[in-house]
């Protein structure tokens, strides 16, 4: 149940002209329920990197361990805003296998494919789009970030423009309480909350306002020191599909820092290494070598050996788990089907209520 309302929603109640109307509003709000405790989406657009794991997967696994029941959807409809459908399709089962191998438990975390409820998502996106103007969508800062080749917002494909509305449809159909997002998605969450309030104000208090669980994305830099580690710059990224020789060669070629100096590149390498370390003794080993570096000792070669060992151990363990998971060719599909049943039920029920009040 919703225990408290945000300020904007509270203000809406003060506009009622009679005490009877105010009491009616309060009853409607008390009837609103969240259906999903925590919701997040993953885009199937390529092999995951260690940065993807640390920034997106690990926080959800930690919440799962704390007793939270997440729902994760594979955002294949979102992915086709800037990727071809053939590319998206080939990574769907793979990214689910990756997430499970990295710690998501299908018994505790439901996973579904966004396009399995495409009818409901697309219908609701259309209805929500009535509640926001083109001018407002053009002002969403993430639109400019996603444009390629110096394109202007006015020339963006329409699906990219509607991305925040599509995201709002995913969230509100699930009536999710908390949405796990990175900093780059905060503007989209504001659109979702705005649309929920506008819908409630116009048609009655149907949607609880989703809250933001901001995932503090770790700043993992490219091994080449050119921006963040990304799938789009494979030379500077360590992929979970890399073999030990590839990892070793990438780390040998990476830039660190001269003796006695700490820079952002080295800080990023230390962060990766300590986060992927399995034991406290390994983390202590990293701390000791960095302490020696700060005193001016030439130990970066030794540090790269430690970094290589820890990352290779993590990737080898991941690949072994993934191989076990994918041994049954029907397993991933069964996980998606189980999650999609729940998502379908939530979406149909919500959309029926939406149509009724509209």
Topology of this structure?
Layout: H1 7-13, H2 19-31, E1 36-42, H3 50-65, E2 70-74, H4 76-79, H5 85-101, E3 110-113, H6 118-129, H7 134-138, H8 141-146, H9 158-161, H10 163-174, E4 176-181, H11 186-203, E5 211-214, H12 244-253, H13 264-276, H14 280-294, H15 300-325, H16 331-357
Parallel strand pairs: 1-2, 1-4, 2-3, 4-5
Strand share of the residues? Answer: 5-15%
Which strand order do you get reading across the main beta sheet?
3-2-1-4-5
CATH class of the largest domain: Alpha Beta
Number-wise, the strands total 5
Helix coverage percent:
55-70%
Question: What count of domains describes the coordinates?
Answer: 2
CATH hierarchy: architecture of the largest domain: 3-Layer(aba) Sandwich
User: What would you report as the Rg, rounded to the nearest angstrom?
Assistant: 23 Å
Looking at CATH, which topology of the largest domain would you report? Rossmann fold
Count of alpha/pi helices = 16
**pLDDT below 50 for ≥5 consecutive residues: which ranges?**
1-31
**How is the main sheet built?**
5 strands, parallel
């Amino acid at each position: 149940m919703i225990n408290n309302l945000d300020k904007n929603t509270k203000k809406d109640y003060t506009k009622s002209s009679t005490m009877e109307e105010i009491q009616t509003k309060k009853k409607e709000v008390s009837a609103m329920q969240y259906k999903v405790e925590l919701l997040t989406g993953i885009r199937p657009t390529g092999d995951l990197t260690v940065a993807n794991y640390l920034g997106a997967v690990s926080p959800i696994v930690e919440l799962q361990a704390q007793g939270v029941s997440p729902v994760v959807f594979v955002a294949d409809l979102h992915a086709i805003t800037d990727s071809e459908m053939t590319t998206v399709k080939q990574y769907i089962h793979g990214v689910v296998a990756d997430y499970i191998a990295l710690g998501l438990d299908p018994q505790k975390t439901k996973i579904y494919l966004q396009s399995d409820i495409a009818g409901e998502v697309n219908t609701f996106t259309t209805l929500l789009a009535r509640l926001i103007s083109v001018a407002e969508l053009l002002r969403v800062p993430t639109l400019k970030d996603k444009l390629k080749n110096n394109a202007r917002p006015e020339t963006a494909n329409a699906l990219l423009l509607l991305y925040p509305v599509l995201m709002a449809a995913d969230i509100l159909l699930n009536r999710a309480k908390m949405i796990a997002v990175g900093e780059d998605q905060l503007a989209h969450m504001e659109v979702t909350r705005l649309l929920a309030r506008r819908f409630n104000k116009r048609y009655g208090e149907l949607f609880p306002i989703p809250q933001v669980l901001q995932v503090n994305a770790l700043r993992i830099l490219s091994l080449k020191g050119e921006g963040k580690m990304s799938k789009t710059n494979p030379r500077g990224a360590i992929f979970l599909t890399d073999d030990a020789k590839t990892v070793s060669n990438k780390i040998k070629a990476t830039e660190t820092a001269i003796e006695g100096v700490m820079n952002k590149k080295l800080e990023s390498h230390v962060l990766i290494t300590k986060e992927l370390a399995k034991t406290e003794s390994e983390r202590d080993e990293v701390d000791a070598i960095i302490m020696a570096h700060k005193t001016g000792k030439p130990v970066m070669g030794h540090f790269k050996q430690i970094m290589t060992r820890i990352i290779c151990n993590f990737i080898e363990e991941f690949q072994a788990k993934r191989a076990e998971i994918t041994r049954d060719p029907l397993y991933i599909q069964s996980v998606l089907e189980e999650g999609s049943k729940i998502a379908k039920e939530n979406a149909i029920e919500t959309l029926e209520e939406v149509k009724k009040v509209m």
